[in-house]
Design brief:
Elements lengths: L2 H11 L4 H9 L4 H16 L4 E2 L1 E6 L25 H14 L3 E6 L7 H12 L4 E5 L5 H9 L4 E3 L7 H7 L5 H13 L3 E4 L2 E2 L6 H14 L3 E2 L2 E2 L17 H13 L9 H6 L3 H6 L5 E2 L7 H5 L13 H14 L17
Parallel strand pairs: 1-10, 2-3, 3-4, 4-5, 5-6, 6-8, 7-9
Bound molecules: 5'-deoxyadenosine and iron/sulfur cluster.
The site of 5'-deoxyadenosine has 12 residues, from loops.
Amino acid sequence: MDIKTLIQRAESTHRLSEEEILYLLQAQDADESLLPAADRVRRKYVGDEIHLRALIEFSNICKNNCLYCGLRAENTCINRYRMDEETIFSFAQKAVQYGYKTIVLQGGEDPAFTTEVWLRLLKRIKTLGLAITLSIGERPFEDYRAFKAAGADRYLLRIETTDKALYEKYNPSMSFENRLRCLHDLKKLGYEVGTGVLVGLPGQTMRSLAKDILFFQELGADMIGLGPFIPNPQTPLKNAPAPVLGPALRVMALTRLLLPDVNIPATTAMETLQPNGRILALQSGANVVMPNITEGDARQNYALYPGKAGAADSPLAFREKLAAQLTAIGRPISTGYGWHKKKIY
Ligand code: 5AD
Ligand code: SF4
């Protein structure tokens, strides 16, 4: 197989087989043609605008025990917090003041956030005219249905890995089937659905990453958020090998080639691994940034992994820095909601 021919074909047809994806993932020297191809496809299908989504990390309490994550229930080294409804609402108001059109409510699977709490909050926040993205984990169909009716527009739920055995090894309290059930329910209900994976989990193969990309296509995902796995010293995976950015960027670029019109964020984990990681991602297929507008202790304590980029910035300082960086690479900030516009290809 020839790298250039494969990439050209992916760029024009947006189709590759598992073997072909695997080949490109394994070819170290594919990057110099792969990343620019993803950048061209991004420009052609979703344009130069960057969509910003204001992230509110409302609780770091989680009933689950994912082996890779600092918020896991058994981690006793972390300071736990939970915002009350009023605080969450006031962050949503701030998002509007800062000029954001979308908020992402992200948290651990915190049992205090019952269906009733969410329905109250969603209805209240909806009056602010924001698009609302939920990232609150696995729930029954009825909850998803009610949240949608109350104003939720989008939902983020990473599949984390499509390797079922690996998934269940790293998420001991969860089942792969239920994860899939959730994603399919969300699609059925008409949410814009975001999924994604961790890249570089111990035991994860390149073939399984190739399957992950085909899974995004098969699901018809609207958004794909992925990033490198960063070992957290407070978790059982603390001794995993040092993380690298390369493979995550490559998976992201291939995702853009095969799902040309979806929204893809440059994730914080990418920026954490490399000072210019976010910009590099935005020039290799990504078109979204999710600035964290959480303030105070919560900003420090939402510690999925160590060294999280931007944890020390204020929301406004971050926004200014980002605006300057985006101007420098000729990418305007969108003033719209940034919905997924499906194109024919
Ligand atoms: N490194 C990178 N990403 C992580 N996440 C959880 N733990 C880590 C880690 N150690 C990701 C998961 C989750 C998202 C909110 O954060 O993919 O879905
Ligand atoms: Fe909880 Fe999500 Fe962390 Fe798993 S990855 S422990 S579900 S916050």
